[in-house]
């Protein structure tokens, strides 16, 4: 009942916000992007391709809203803004005389009708895996929410390699256009010749999704390939931090099981020695994923440091205890900081529980990392705050790394 009331509240707000701003999205071609992973990168890629092709475009993503060359903050831990903020931003897009808007959209926003009034012309679902079951309760409900982006669209763009492809195909409207890395589809890597700077197989899917949508719009392959090849990525997404040391440090936003698995798989390929991962799970969010992520890390990393990631009203120690249950399902051993040296001399895997995130990063960089190691910091990425209770405290992952490296920000 509470969820129904909240959803009705959002719908009413979206309705009146759309009226107040005169349904600005009707004057634009709206490209809606959703999925468990890859939403933000795909959104930015599409925007960059449109821009480099000379089209007047804007975007609203987890990281920022980009309108007429200006960047607007979309708020703490937010992907899709509130209906009033969203419609206000879209009105700015129309006033800038843009023709296209690329809109990153969450399952929450779709379920709550926060994008009511934004008729999506081209909808893409990058993938669907475990996430947000604290809100949606079941994977089926989560899938249904994601599929809403395909309602009434002219083109439904789907990942043919995705486990839920057939389900999404049944839910799709308009013309279904597919992309694939593995099999026969409307678009595959053989249709393009780009060499993306952003790493990992998961980013190849993001590039191909963006290329498919751009092809539907009518952008030439030459422009698509040029834009994708020159795209440098997004802050906090597989971003390497300069250390001037004999080990590497990479920051990523991965905070879901599949995202953690994918980025660990990529980092493992570039690691000459040990892979050290530092991560946590957000408080007041999907608790089911906590042991899942612990098990993934236990199988794929050599050293795991469990720490804070927006604990909110929960005790961070309780959160990392739940993640640790997943670690214990693998052969990873419990580590004690005082015995670090003896641990490093063995070939066993260890996990450490360090509630303070700065202390956890300090420990990874100052005590664990050796020549050829890679430290992967997951969960915070581009975000500029850490939530304890109801308060947002300043946090910058890259500054935390520099503090660990040099003793100052």
Topology at a glance:
Blueprint: H1 2-20, E1 29-34, H2 39-52, E2 57-60, E3 65-67, E4 70-72, H3 83-95, E5 100-104, H4 107-111, E6 122-125, H5 133-136, H6 139-147, E7 155-159, H7 165-171, E8 175-180, E9 187-188, H8 201-217, H9 221-230, E10 239-241, E11 248-252, H10 257-270, E12 275-279, H11 289-300, E13 303-306, H12 316-327, E14 333-334, H13 340-344, E15 350-353, H14 357-368, E16 374-378, E17 385-388, E18 391-394, H15 397-406
Parallel strand pairs: 1-5, 1-6, 2-5, 6-7, 7-8, 8-9, 11-16, 12-13, 12-16, 13-15, 14-15
Antiparallel strand pairs: 2-3, 3-4, 10-11, 17-18
Helix pairs in contact: 1-3, 2-8, 2-9, 8-9, 10-11, 11-12, 14-15
- Number of individual domains: 2
**Helix share of residues?**
25-40%
Number of helices: 15
Strand content: 15-25%
Judged by helices, strands and strand pairing, the structural class is: alpha/beta
CATH C-level name of the largest domain: Alpha Beta
What kind of assembly state do the chains in view correspond to? Answer: single chain
What do the pLDDT scores average to?
A: 93
Question: Can you put this structure into words, describing what you see?
Answer:
With 409 residues, the chain is an alpha/beta fold. It has 2 domains: 2-230, UDP-N-acetylmuramoyl-L-alanine:D-glutamate ligase; 239-406, Protein-Tyrosine Phosphatase, Chain A, CATH 3.90.190. It has helices spanning 2-20, 39-52, 83-95, 107-111, 133-136, 139-147, 165-171, 201-217, 221-230, 257-270, 289-300, 316-327, 340-344, 357-368, 397-406; strands at residues 29-34, 57-60, 65-67, 70-72, 100-104, 122-125, 155-159, 175-180, 187-188, 239-241, 248-252, 275-279, 303-306, 333-334, 350-353, 374-378, 385-388, 391-394. It has a 9-stranded mixed beta sheet, with helices on both faces. β3 and β4 form a beta hairpin. The longest helix is centred in the first third of the chain and has 19 residues, at 2-20. The relative contact order is 0.11. The mean pLDDT is 93.
């Amino acid at each position: 009942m509470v969820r129904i009331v909240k959803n009705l509240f959002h719908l009413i707000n979206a309705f009146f916000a759309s009226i107040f701003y005169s349904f600005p999205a009707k004057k634009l071609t709206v490209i809606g992007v959703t999925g468990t992973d890859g939403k933000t990168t795909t959104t930015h890629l599409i925007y960059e391709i449109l821009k480099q092709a000379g089209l007047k475009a804007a975007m609203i993503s987890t990281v920022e809203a980009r309108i007429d060359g200006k960047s607007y903050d979309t708020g703490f831990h937010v992907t899709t803004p509130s209906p009033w903020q969203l419609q206000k931003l879209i009105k700015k897009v129309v006033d800038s005389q843009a023709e296209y808007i690329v809109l990153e959209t969450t399952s929450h926003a779709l379920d709550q009708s926060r994008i009511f009034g934004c008729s999506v012309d081209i909808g893409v679902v990058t993938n669907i895996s475990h996430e947000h079951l604290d809100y949606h309760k079941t994977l089926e409900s989560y899938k249904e929410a994601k599929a809403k982006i395909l309602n009434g669209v002219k083109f439904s763009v789907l990942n043919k390699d995705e486990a839920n492809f057939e389900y999404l195909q049944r839910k799709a409207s308009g013309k279904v256009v597919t992309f694939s890395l593995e099999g026969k589809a409307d678009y595959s890597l053989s249709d393009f010749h780009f060499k993306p700077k952003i790493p990992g197989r998961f980013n190849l899917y993001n590039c191909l999704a963006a290329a498919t949508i751009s092809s539907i719009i009518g952008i030439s392959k030459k422009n698509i390939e040029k834009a994708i090849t020159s795209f440098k990525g997004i802050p906090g997404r597989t971003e390497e931090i300069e250390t001037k040391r004999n080990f590497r440090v990479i920051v990523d936003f991965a905070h879901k099981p599949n995202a953690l698995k994918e980025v660990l798989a990529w980092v493992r390929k570039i690691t000459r020695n040990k892979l050290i991962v530092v991560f946590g799970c957000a408080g007041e969010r999907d608790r089911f994923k906590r042991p899942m992520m612990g098990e993934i890390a236990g199988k794929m990393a050599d050293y795991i440091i469990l720490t804070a990631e927006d604990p909110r009203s929960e005790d961070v120690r309780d959160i990392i205890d739940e993640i640790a249950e997943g670690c214990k399902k693998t052969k990873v051993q419990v580590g004690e900081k005082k015995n670090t040296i003896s641990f490093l001399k063995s070939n066993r895997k260890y996990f450490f529980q360090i509630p303070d995130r700065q202390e956890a990063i300090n420990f990874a960089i100052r005590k664990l990392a050796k020549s050829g190691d890679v430290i992967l910091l997951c969960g915070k990425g581009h975000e500029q705050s850490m939530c304890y209770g109801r308060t947002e405290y300043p946090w910058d992952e890259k500054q935390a790394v520099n503090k660990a490296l040099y003793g100052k920000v």
